[in-house]
Design brief:
Radius of gyration: 21 Å
Number of helices: 17
Structural class: alpha/beta
Low-confidence stretches: none
Helix content: 25-40%
Strand content: 15-25%
Distance between the termini: 45 Å
Shape: globular
Length: about 425
Amino acid sequence: MHVFFSGIGGAGIGPLALIAKQAGYHVSGSDKQSSHYIDYLKSHGIDDITIGQTTEQIAAVHERQPIDWFIYTSAITKERPDHPELEFCKTHDIKATKRDEFINQILKDKKLKLVAVAGTHGKTTTTAMAVWLFKQLGMSVSYSVGAKISFGQMGEYVEGSDYFVYEADEYDRNFLAFRPEVAIITGIDWDHPDIYPTREEYHRAFEQFVDQSKHVIFWRSDFAKLNLNHRDNFLIIDDEAKDMDKLILPGLVNRKDAWQVIKAMQLINESSVNELTDYMNIFPGLSRRFEQIVPNLISDYAHTPEKIRGALQTAHEVASGNVVVVYEGLHNTRQHFIKEDLKHLFDDVKHLYVVPSYLAREDPKLHLLSPKDIIKLTAHPDDANPAELNDELKKTIKKHLDKDDLVLCLTAGGGGSLDEWLRKEFLTTN
């Protein structure tokens, strides 16, 4: 079967393309722009990738080998309902679905039990931690992680594995397509107002996801947000779990993610808490999650208020008060949604630099908030400066590094993002 992945350079689609190739499918794909993720996929044997998404380009792929299944992201239909690739599929009778249907097909065909990680924040880190524990315990596992990891590929199908670990994203209600064996809910804080106009709708989606799951692991504070009665298949963890202090990973958010994974693994494997904790304490981390680019220069994907607070807590834990932030908002729509949170998010940093937001799936009716506009929303605009991804910002970051400041870059991570710029400017020339 020939499967074509549109948006193959994305953190959700790219790993799935790797899994499909390993599972025996012929894989091709496209993206709007090149990126380090595209390079990663090519280095792992997926080289039939076109940059650009035109009718002519997909027609050429289809002519070389007929496409059987077209997989696309929610962003395609949100940004352009008449997307040329989708239109080509309609006129050529090619099956076209979002990724969830294809994942369910793999789960069915390969008889895999799903460990789904859901929540507003912490999904990718928690997914990677679960994969790490499976591997440390010597258990074969298939998985999809939305970031690069040092202990495996971003996506992997292992013949004979019993479990598939997956980051189940709530955007566009994607996670409601699944019925997990084990569901880990990392946190519930209203997000994606374009999909869930009210907090109540957001909560109802998680309630439905819980109903579809065989075992569910919550924090008590998150369980309290949902209109649910306690059930035998719920494992509810106190937010200040006493035994969690055995974890020595930097950052409270990381320790909480790790603790949920340990509890989940106990449902799957008979290993002791002490053994699982020892393995988790040597978790090597993953790309774009408090990742050190060069000493004291950190890239982090934090983009919701709670995740940003978690990244800042980790930064202060590591560097005391010497924290400088470079902020790239993920979506203009979200910046409007979190205006009130932006007021005090950065109160405790030495200085804030704001670069233009990373734009995707935007509401064209909303005013495009510039770096100056975002700075005006903060409580301390005199301690902030607008910036661009240029030599001036590079020099500014180097000055802070020379002063032993920790520079935390909160960045989207896609092609043309602050994260990609950091790697180009500091990894290749430093």
